[in-house]
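fyi for ur records
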Amino acid sequence: MKKSRHQKIVEIITEQDVETQEELADCLREAGFHVTQATVSRDIRELKLSKVPDGHGRQKYATAGKDIIADRDKGLVERRYIHVLREGFASMDRAQNLVVIKTVSGMAMAVAAALDAMEFDEVLGCIAGDDTIMVASRTEEEAGALIHKIQGMLDR
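which gave:
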């Protein structure tokens, strides 16, 4: 059931611009899937969907893209994640072993998914809200190193 739902989600966001989890849930229900907001949120994380500009001043859900899957070029994938980070990033600060990243409204989940996908050794996990991400590291030193790495990506 989950596999077919995931396939349907990719089909939906490929064929139409979907801006919100609620819209995606409605589309899935219309397609005959019984879903809750929590299920859709989990699916978005598992599929590593991110929000990208739709060309009309709005955001829409998108997959990593066929060019990345066909290419399997790690450098290209990393550049895409860095692009998401740059587009959504507003500021960051550290509180002991936690890094708090502020994003553009609605972009925290996409930026957190990009951080997770980059598989930094310093990241134990991310929790994303609408415009804030809490990133947990094991130590204060690792949190500092993570900030340095992220800042380096932003400065490129």
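The first helix runs from residue 2 to 15. thats all i got for now
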